[in-house]
Amino acid sequence: MARYKIAILISGRGSNMAALIEACRDESFPAEVALVLSNRPEAPGLEIAKAAHIPTQVIEHGDFDSREAFDAAMTESLAASGVRLICLAGFMRLLSAEFCQRWRDSLINIHPSLLPAFKGLHVHERMLETGVRIAGCTVHFVRPEMDEGPILVQAAVPIAADDTPKTLAARILVQEHRIYPLAVRLIAEGRARTAGGMVAIDNYGLPEQILINPPLE
Ligand code: GRF
Question: Most CB contacts within 10 A, which of 9, 64, 67, 121?
């Protein structure tokens, strides 16, 4: 069966992109990466994609007069590549309402918190300042408001007493690299549908482990 074509949009290091590329290397994975697109020519992730023989493209936002014009150029290139799903992976540009509407339910994002808590930037610092015990990450469908949209998959990550933003970010990132491929697989297999602002997923059992932090004595 033809694999589900995806595009990955990056602005920087591209570790989530690399995790998706790695998942797609397995021929039994139901998706393939047709395009990696960056708004920054110097994004280190571009080299990783090229080394994996993935088509890459740079569309620099600075070359356009407006957000809408930049987004329209991206849409043109994404449509031409025949992708059915766009994965934002550290893509540091807000997207226009038009772009979100054009790709509604075909556009997903990963965020390093248990949304709807801790939207926005500097998430790890803010979690530590707030004193929450459980952090995590979320893959969600994108809506025009930042870090809003129906939730597909989340992973919980306990916070250690001596965590710094850096150590916490590193532990969350390990889980990001697990849940992003899972979310793509659920969509490519047709097992995830948006319904009433939420996502319904066919056929899954709850994990047995319950996370309590600090643990029971
Ligand atoms: C990740 O923490 C992701 O959750 C957030 O931006 C970061 C991107 O990292 N949206 P990378 O470029 O995937 O390594």
Answer: 9
Domains in the chain: boundaries: 1-103, 110-217
Integer CA distances (angstroms), 133 to 16, 114, 170, in order: 24, 12, 16
Ligand 1 atom 14: the closest Cα is on which residue? 15
Q: Which two tokens stand for residue 154?
A: 């989340």
HSE-up of residue 174 (Cα within 13 Å, Cβ side): 9
Alpha-carbon span 52 to 18, nearest angstrom: 9
State pTM to two decimals. 0.97
Q: Which residues line ligand 1 (CB under 6 A)?
A: 12-17, 89-90, 110-112, 173, 176
Place of tokens 């600090």: 214
Q: What is the pLDDT of residues 153-197, one digit of tens each?
A: 999 999 999 999 999 999 999 999 999 999 999 999 999 999 999
Fold of 110-217: Rossmann fold (3.40.50)
